[in-house]
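Re: that chain you flagged

S.,

Sorry for the slow reply, it's been a week of failed gels. I finally had a moment to sit down with the sequence you sent. For the record, here it is as I used it:
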Amino acid sequence: MVIDSNNGIKPGSNGGNSRPTTVAPRESGPQSGAAGSPRPASRDSVELSAEAQSMNRLEENLAQLPDVDVERVASLKQAIAEGRFEIDAERIAQNMLNQEDLLG
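Prediction finished late last night. Pasting the structure tokens below so you have them in one place:
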């Protein structure tokens, strides 16, 4: 038996929801206050920092970009077909080492 632990949701995704979910305010029951009158319904609120708001805007902008740069792919295909595409092994090796440095 195989158990799908992520239920088909990719890591880093929010299950297809593009917007954060909101929670309806909680209403308090008929509790008595000091004077015996019912208390008004309480509301929970969340305030996002400027950094979080900036991240939300960045995510929205990135979501509007295409997954693949079609023009870049076409130009690379053409360069390969014409034999103009050159592989720079030194540059690839250096970038791999740079990635290793970033990862620690």
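What I noticed first: The chain has a mean pLDDT of 78.

Talk soon,
D.
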